[in-house]
């Protein structure tokens, strides 16, 4: 029996229902017969559409492979940043397979394109987990993409590694945050500017979305706690992709010409950075007068323009390509070979992906399974080398311990470290400097098992 | 009892030794050998020692350190400068000043400098350069001193004031002298100093005056003079603030104009809802990139070459699009939206495939960098200045072209009445292709300009398409003058709103204003005139 | 035989197909075990539900564009407003299950240190309020915008670009955190609706069924509108507005009515979309989204109501499949599809379809019934 | 929708002085060109008036002014004694009972012939009525009668787009009839018609006069002669002469500026 004929038989069921409704419409028997034929065809077509939607279900899961979902935008506005991470995951998978795969199985990367479209992120995450049955997802860049995916991975009990620095104020059982939390980037950077550079006046510039808002809120609270007055803080938000920075840069210049050392903390998002820095260079704001420290500008962004007018401006990350370690040298060499381009650079989210992948692989090796709960438990406390000569540790709050580096931009687009934390800093899911979250903590290990535990109330807030 | 003496002796002799060692002049070679072991804290002291020497290599070393070009070999500790000469890397041994081969097999380690080291180097240079024979170097050095006037001794200052011939530098030196006097505490000297500084717009001068104002014990006369001088400075600053805003507005307007003017032709004149207009801009920007890659030695001229090249590339693509797609959609203008949207997706992905999704680096030529300092509080950046001039040039060239050339005549004829033009045997097919090519080509030229301002990436076009449509519609479709006025209006309004409302709200207000404006004038600023319909 | 087939009017056809698809999908999802050839997975139900929301949105646009010549490049705004109304309601249903555990305020407000709900959130925890807002928010915006624009006789590209400016301005406004709608992140992590968990398959199935029913009802309504006398006037306005005025019709009021009705449909589509997709954010206001709606309608076939539905489903389906199958080249395929359809199928996909299964003219069908 | 509009439509123009249309001192200019120049025109109730004049004499502009398409720079236009037409827009003017047939036949191409007439019927034209409206028996009869009058009965269900030029002219006249206007403005009704068609048109227009006031703009002097009782000659935006056809033809002024130019017509 072919599937089609079985379809036709099955098609009787809804058809008779429709006949009844049509009868109520006083159709002649003749017309009804017409309906009959017509409806058969229509039913067939409808069934085919519905089944073709479901077609992937019929793929039996291949037991010889472990599937890794890659959920990074390859088109649209975020492709600029995210494509690199897709390639990084592919490189890691490739390498792992060369080492013989995992648990004796090959790893297969399933790449989809959520196209910088946030609802599509949720849809694609569902597709990866349900249709493709992947064991883990590496993906996301923007906060909103993560927020969109979050309910899906929680509902389907998937596992996701999110490799980008973010605003914190979140902790999910199913997500591992391998990028920096604000206390691993923003606070140390401000400390450096305050103590080593002697900054007294502050400009907080950011794109108007949640990461800059949160970061600036934390920084504002932090600065005030350190005795900075309101009049010495200027906060300005711009729309996405803002390209005309003339006034703002000029305002910064004026704000900085009062004799007090002024520093700019920039949480400007990807695309708007190039016009911002170009304007900065052209209006002649030198790093020695008004240093700008950025949290979302790395080697990749800097490779998109000529950095010579910007030498000395700062960036704060947990990794720089310029750091000399054997692991890093090897990683850079491998990356350049994999991508086939001598001029490609590496950056912090790539390191975060690297750490995330290695941790996951190690946890799978250790537990001998890809079961999400088992691997999750094993991941807590897991330690793997990072690329900067230290050890990354996954904490019970699903955030990493990382070193923090402050670097100065060079004219070749690289960033040279000028300051670093003595050891690693433990990522904080909930900021200590915010009224709303200072009493919250996250611990996904037994017995607490809670993403937002209120230490004052002694209860787990939120749904889980 | 002996012990303390002994201890003192040891301490003293140790200090003496240290002093002796320090006093002993180190050779340039010895100092260079210390470079690899320095850090940000120790480097400035080492550089001071370099400065005390008279070695001619020091100046070169300082310049290279400033540029971050000094490296050392991790094993041999050989100190090397690595610079790029015409895109090629060149390695020079610091001691011998000779070009050497690229050290193989190792990543050279950098002698790292940070902002404080760099500003230390600049001050070392300034102290040396204040007596330099080149007036430009002197000017830079004196400006550098202005922010910290105590770096220069009154004797040296008096000496320089006497010798200095250049009036600009002399004025700056007198300002420095006046700043010295401000602190003197002598009433008449202070008054003289304040009068010297009257009308001086240097931010450092203003700061010094404001600091003086903060002091409690000031003679009445000094305070009066101080207040009036500061008030004068503030008034001037306010005026120049306005001038600056207008400049910003015009400059934003000219960017909008450039981006929209091509669309004014394809959309305004031909009626094609050209969603691929942004991608034509993008192609122009990528053309600039390709030109710079092809002629790495000619960065200074790359833009001049890119303008015609981008015009041709985008124009050609435009003609191809017109011939292959749009010509079949005559009389179905709304469907051109669909087709050109498809084309725009394809072009974006094409660029992504060919050039990678990453932004490409387009260098700014020297003459486009920096700013023209009109006075210390008002400067205009060169790139914006050239862009204003360039976009107006393009605009008027296009106007003249449409007025005088036969193609222009045909374009206008077809735009006004297609059937009539055809009846008069204007080959409207050919005219359409040429018009679309012209509009696309100008969009490409806009891309060259935008490559100097923003990201050169696959999404470049997307960020300008909406603005372009708004500009054309606000101005009145099919009116080039309208496009000019509309672009400038939007730019200036935006730039005057922005300081008050912030950029996000400014854009929203402009958009809502536009919607209301169109209710009043449903055909834009410059509607097409005519009796019927 | 063919003659008999032709008797079926398009409205009956579409409603039948929708009923069949709806019932088939629901039954196939519940009756057949997973892994069976006939099983339609919950994932597919969800996806299909999303397509049908898009179809409703396309239907709304086709009504104004295909029948009245109003090319709105801002219909995404109405869709998003409906979605936001639903999102606000769903947000309030989270109650104290948010991360900060505040029973009253959504998480993002707690984070912004707001201590009480802003006025426009008052009542948002009521289902009835939500239904009212889903209709009123897009409806009022469309009414005000339409009343201004159509009375001032803004038309053609001017109108199109103004609608685009409208949605663009709204997008920027909703991006602002001060607006109180969650800024760039929008609203997400919804828990339940009317007490039913949004994660449960049954709720999903019910939402899907509801979407089918509403789409069918909307189709029927739209069909009624375009075939009644007002519909004829609307078509006449599309072809020669000034003539309609000389015949004595206040064309502006017809356009305002149609535009408002269409916006309400779009808002309902948005409200159905949000619980099925799980997120609403300002990206829905982006002008590109609105252009996409136009593309669906054009691909399907403008001026035929079922064309809009076909276009929305086909393009969305293509996007889903292509972004999975060929993640790096799907834009080529999609872009190529747009160009080819425009060139080869000026009437859209239904142009193909109509030649093979020409539907009986609606007008005559109606007359027979009368 | 707008019940307030019902009243004037029901009352109709106040024609107690025998005049249905007053145009006084009307001037219109486009970019300096005076299309109408201090024009005065009065139309009596039930009158059939022909307007003639060279191209650019202002005939179409005059109609535009009456029907609200163009606003005059100066002057007054009133319908009956009580309606100042300058305060009304096209659709209101139409509902007041002024119908217009355009120079270029404009019918609703996508609609059937019958629907073209249906839309033109005199009735409430608000959106709510239109949404729920079904043709009454009386209205169906009206349509059938008009279809018969204009000779398009067998084309009733065909789209108007397939009609010939002449048929479209007829349809447009039919649409005018359906609207039952008090005042008809007819711009070149016989352009593109055969001789016999033109004759029927002349007959129709003549029969309309009396019950309706009719203003006809026409170039075809033969046609004008066949229907006209009073002829108004426009020249450079003003009335040059007014009177019977014979009087006009013997007017030396007219001869000079108009017939002299197009004397062979």
Automatic annotation (TrEMBL), chain B:
Record-given protein name: Urea ABC transporter permease subunit UrtB
InterPro entries: ABC_transp_permease (IPR001851), ABC_UrtB_bac (IPR017779), BCAA_transport_permease (IPR052157)
Cellular localization per UniProt: Cell inner membrane
Signal peptide: 1-23
CDD domains: TM_PBP1_LivH_like
GO (cellular component) term, any one: plasma membrane
Keywords, ordered alphabetically: Amino-acid transport, Cell membrane, Membrane, Signal, Transmembrane, Transmembrane helix, Transport
Any matching Pfam family: BPD_transp_2
Membrane association type: Multi-pass membrane protein
A single GO BP: amino acid transport
Family: Belongs to the binding-protein-dependent transport system permease family. LivHM subfamily.
NCBIfam families named among the record's database cross-references: urea_trans_UrtB
Any one Gene Ontology molecular-function term assigned to this protein's record: transmembrane transporter activity
Main location: membrane
From TrEMBL, chain D:
Family annotation (InterPro entries): ABC_AA/LPS_Transport (IPR051120), ABC_transporter-like_ATP-bd (IPR003439), ABC_transptr_urea_ATP-bd_UrtD (IPR017781), BCA_ABC_TP_C (IPR032823), P-loop_NTPase (IPR027417)
The protein's name: Urea ABC transporter ATP-binding protein UrtD
Stretches assigned to the ABC transporter domain: 21-261
Top-level taxon of the source organism: Bacteria
Alphabetical keyword list: ATP-binding, Nucleotide-binding, Transport
GO cellular component: plasma membrane
GO-annotated molecular function: ATP binding; ATP hydrolysis activity
């Amino acid at each position: 029996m072919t599937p089609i004929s079985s379809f036709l038989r099955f098609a009787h069921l809804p058809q008779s229902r429709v006949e009844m409704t049509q009868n109520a419409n006083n159709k002649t028997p003749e017309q009804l017969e017409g309906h009959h034929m017509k409806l058969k065809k229509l039913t067939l077509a409808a069934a085919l559409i519905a089944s073709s939607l479901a077609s992937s279900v019929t793929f039996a899961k291949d037991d010889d492979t472990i599937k890794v979902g890659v959920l990074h935008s390859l088109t649209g506005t975020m492709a600029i940043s995210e494509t690199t991470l897709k390639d990084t995951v592919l490189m890691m998978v490739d390498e792992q397979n060369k080492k013989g795969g995992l648990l004796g199985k090959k790893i297969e990367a399933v790449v989809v394109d959520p196209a910088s479209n946030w609802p599509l992120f949720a849809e694609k995450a569902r597709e990866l987990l349900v249709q493709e049955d992947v064991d883990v997802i590496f993906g996301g860049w923007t906060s909103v993409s993560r927020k969109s995916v979050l309910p899906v991975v929680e509902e389907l009990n998937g596992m996701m590694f999110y490799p980008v620095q973010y605003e914190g104020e979140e902790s999910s059982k199913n997500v591992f945050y391998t990028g920096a939390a604000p206390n691993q980037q923003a606070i140390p950077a401000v400390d450096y500017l305050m103590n080593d550079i002697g900054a007294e006046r502050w400009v907080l510039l950011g794109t108007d979305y949640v990461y800059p808002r949160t970061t600036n809120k934390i920084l504002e609270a932090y600065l005030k706690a350190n005795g900075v007055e309101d009049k010495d803080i200027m906060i300005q938000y711009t729309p996405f992709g803002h390209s005309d920075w003339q006034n703002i840069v000029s305002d910064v210049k004026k704000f900085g010409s009062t004799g007090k050392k002024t520093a700019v903390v920039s949480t400007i998002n990807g695309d708007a950075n190039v016009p911002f820095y170009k304007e900065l260079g052209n209006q002649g704001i030198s790093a020695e007068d008004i240093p700008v420290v950025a949290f979302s500008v790395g080697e990749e962004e800097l490779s998109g323009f000529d950095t010579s007018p910007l030498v000395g401006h700062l960036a704060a990350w947990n990794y720089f390509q310029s750091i000399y370690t054997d692991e890093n040298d090897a990683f850079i060499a491998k990356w350049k070979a994999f991508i086939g381009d001598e001029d490609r650079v590496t950056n912090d989210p790539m390191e975060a992906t690297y750490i995330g992948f290695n941790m996951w692989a190690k946890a799978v090796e250790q537990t001998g399974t890809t079961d999400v709960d088992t691997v999750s438990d094993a991941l807590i406390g897991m330690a793997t080398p990072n690329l900067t000569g230290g050890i990354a540790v996954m904490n019970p709050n699903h955030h990493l311990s990382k070193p923090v580096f402050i670097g100065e931009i060079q004219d070749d687009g690289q960033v040279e470290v000028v300051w670093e934390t003595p050891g690693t800093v433990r990522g904080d899911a909930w900021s200590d400097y915010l009224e709303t979250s200072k009493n919250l903590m996250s611990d996904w290990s037994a017995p607490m098992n809670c993403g937002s535990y209120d230490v004052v109330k002694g209860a787990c807030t939120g749904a889980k | 009892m002996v012990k303390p003496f002994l201890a003192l002796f040891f301490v003293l002799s140790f200090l003496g030794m240290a002093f002796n060692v320090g006093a002993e002049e180190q050779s340039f070679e010895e100092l260079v050998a210390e470079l690899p072991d320095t850090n940000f804290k120790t480097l400035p002291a080492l550089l001071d020692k370099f400065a005390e020497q008279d070695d001619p290599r020091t100046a070169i070393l300082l310049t290279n350190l400033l540029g971050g070009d000094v490296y050392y070999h991790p094993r041999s500790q050989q100190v090397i400068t690595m610079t790029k000469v015409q895109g090629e890397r060149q390695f020079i041994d610091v001691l011998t000043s000779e070009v050497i081969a690229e050290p193989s097999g190792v990543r050279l380690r950098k002698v790292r400098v940070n902002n404080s080291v760099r500003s230390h180097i600049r001050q070392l240079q300034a102290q040396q350069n204040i007596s330099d024979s080149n007036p430009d170097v002197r000017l830079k050095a004196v400006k550098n001193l202005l922010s910290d006037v105590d770096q220069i001794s009154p004797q040296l200052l008096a000496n320089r004031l006497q010798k200095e011939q250049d009036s600009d530098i002399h004025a700056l030196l007198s300002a420095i002298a006046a700043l010295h006097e401000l602190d003197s505490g002598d009433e008449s000297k202070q008054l003289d100093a304040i009068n010297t500084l009257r009308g001086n717009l240097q931010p450092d001068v203003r700061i010094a005056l404001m600091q003086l104002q903060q002091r409690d014990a000031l003679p009445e006369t000094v305070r009066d003079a101080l207040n009036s001088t500061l008030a004068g400075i503030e008034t001037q600053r306010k005026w120049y603030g306005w001038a600056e805003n207008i400049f910003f507005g015009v400059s934003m307007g000219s960017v909008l104009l450039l981006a929209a003017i091509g669309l004014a032709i394809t959309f305004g004149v031909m009626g094609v809802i050209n969603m691929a207009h942004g991608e034509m801009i993008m192609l122009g920007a990528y053309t600039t990139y390709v030109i710079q890659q092809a002629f790495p030695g000619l960065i200074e001229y790359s833009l001049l070459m890119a303008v015609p090249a981008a015009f041709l590339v985008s124009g050609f693509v435009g003609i191809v699009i017109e011939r292959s797609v749009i010509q079949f959609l005559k009389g179905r203008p709304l469907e051109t939206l669909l087709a050109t949207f498809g084309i725009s997706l394809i072009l974006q992905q094409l660029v992504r495939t060919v050039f990678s999704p990453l932004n490409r680096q387009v260098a700014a030529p020297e003459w486009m960098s920096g700013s023209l300092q009109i006075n210390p509080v008002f400067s205009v950046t060169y790139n914006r200045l050239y862009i204003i001039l360039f976009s107006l040039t393009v605009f008027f060239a296009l106007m003249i072209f449409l007025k005088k050339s036969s193609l222009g005549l045909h374009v206008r004829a077809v735009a006004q009445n297609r059937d009539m033009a055809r009846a008069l045997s204007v080959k409207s097919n050919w005219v359409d292709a040429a018009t679309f090519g012209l509009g696309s080509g100008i969009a490409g030229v806009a891309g060259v300009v935008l490559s100097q301002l923003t990201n050169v990436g696959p999404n470049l076009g997307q960020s300008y398409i909406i603005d372009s449509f708004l500009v054309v519609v606000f101005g009145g479709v099919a009116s080039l003058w309208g496009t000019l006025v509309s672009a400038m209006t939007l730019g200036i309004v935006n730039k005057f709103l922005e300081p008050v409302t912030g950029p996000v709200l400014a854009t929203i207000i402009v958009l809502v204003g536009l919607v209301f404006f169109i209710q009043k004038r449903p055909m834009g600023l410059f509607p097409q005139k005519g009796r019927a319909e | 035989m063919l003659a008999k087939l032709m008797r079926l009017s398009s409205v009956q056809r579409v409603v039948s197909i929708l009923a069949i698809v709806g019932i088939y999908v629901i039954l196939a999802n519940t009756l057949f075990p997973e892994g069976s050839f006939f099983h339609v997975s919950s994932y597919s139900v969800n996806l299909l539900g999303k397509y049908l929301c898009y179809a409703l949105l396309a239907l709304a646009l086709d009504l104004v564009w295909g029948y009245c010549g109003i090319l709105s490049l801002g219909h995404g705004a109405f869709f998003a407003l409906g979605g936001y109304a639903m999102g606000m309601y769903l947000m309030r249903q989270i109650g104290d299950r948010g991360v900060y555990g505040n029973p009253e305020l959504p998480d993002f407000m707690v984070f912004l240190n707001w201590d009480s709900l802003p006025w426009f959130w008052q009542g948002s925890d009521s289902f009835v309020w939500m239904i009212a807002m889903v209709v009123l928010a897009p409806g009022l915006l469309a009414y005000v915008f339409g009343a201004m624009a159509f009375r001032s006789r803004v038309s053609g590209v001017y109108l199109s670009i103004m609608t685009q400016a409208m949605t663009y301005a709204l997008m920027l406004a909703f991006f602002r955190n001060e607006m109180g709608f969650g800024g760039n992140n929008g609203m997400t992590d919804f828990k339940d609706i009317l007490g039913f968990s949004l994660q449960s398959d049954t709720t999903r199935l019910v939402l899907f069924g509801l979407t089918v029913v509403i789409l069918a009802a909307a189709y029927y309504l739209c069909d009624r509108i375009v075939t009644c006398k007002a519909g004829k006037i609307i078509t006449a306005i599309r072809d020669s507005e000034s003539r309609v005025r000389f015949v004595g019709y206040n064309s502006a009021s017809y356009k305002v009515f149609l535009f408002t009705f269409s916006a309400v449909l779009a808002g309902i589509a948005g409200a159905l979309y949000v619980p099925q997709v799980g997120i609403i954010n300002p990206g829905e206001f982006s002008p590109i989204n609105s252009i996409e709606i136009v593309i669906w309608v054009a691909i399907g076939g403008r001026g035929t109501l079922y064309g809009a539905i076909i276009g929305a489903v086909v393009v969305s389906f293509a996007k889903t499949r292509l972004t999975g199958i060929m993640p790096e080249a799907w834009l080529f395929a999609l872009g190529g599809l747009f160009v080819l359809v425009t060139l080869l199928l000026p009437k859209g996909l239904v142009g193909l379809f109509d030649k093979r299964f020409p539907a009986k003219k609606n007008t005559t069908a109606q007359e027979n019934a009368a | 929708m707008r019940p307030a509009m019902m009243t004037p439509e029901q009352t109709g123009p106040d024609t107690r002085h025998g005049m249905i249309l007053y145009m006084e001192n009307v001037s219109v200019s486009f970019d300096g060109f005076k299309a109408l120049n201090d024009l005065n025109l009065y139309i009596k109730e039930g009158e059939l008036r022909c307007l003639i004049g060279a191209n650019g004499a202002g005939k179409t502009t005059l109609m535009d002014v009456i029907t609200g398409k163009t606003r005059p720079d100066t002057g007054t236009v009133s319908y009956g004694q009580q309606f100042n037409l300058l305060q009304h827009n096209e659709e209101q003017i139409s509902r007041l009972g002024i119908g217009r047939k355009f120079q270029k036949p404009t019918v609703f191409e996508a609609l059937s012939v019958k629907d073209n007439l249906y839309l033109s019927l005199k009735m409430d034209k608000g959106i709510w009525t239109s949404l729920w409206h079904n043709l009454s028996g009386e209205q169906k009869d009206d349509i059938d009668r008009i279809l018969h009058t204009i000779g398009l009965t067998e084309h009733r269900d065909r789209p108007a787009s397939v009609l010939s030029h002449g048929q479209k002219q007829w349809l447009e006249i039919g649409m005018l009839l359906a609207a039952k206007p008090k005042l008809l403005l007819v711009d070149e009704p016989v352009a593109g018609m055969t001789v016999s068609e033109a004759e029927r048109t002349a007959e129709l227009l003549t029969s309309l006069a009396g019950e309706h006031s009719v203003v006809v703009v026409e170039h075809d002097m033969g046609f004008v002669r066949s229907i006209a009782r009073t002829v108004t000659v426009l020249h450079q935006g003003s009335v040059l002469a007014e009177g019977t056809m014979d009087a006009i033809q013997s007017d030396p002024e007219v001869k000079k500026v108009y017939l002299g130019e197009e004397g062979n017509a």
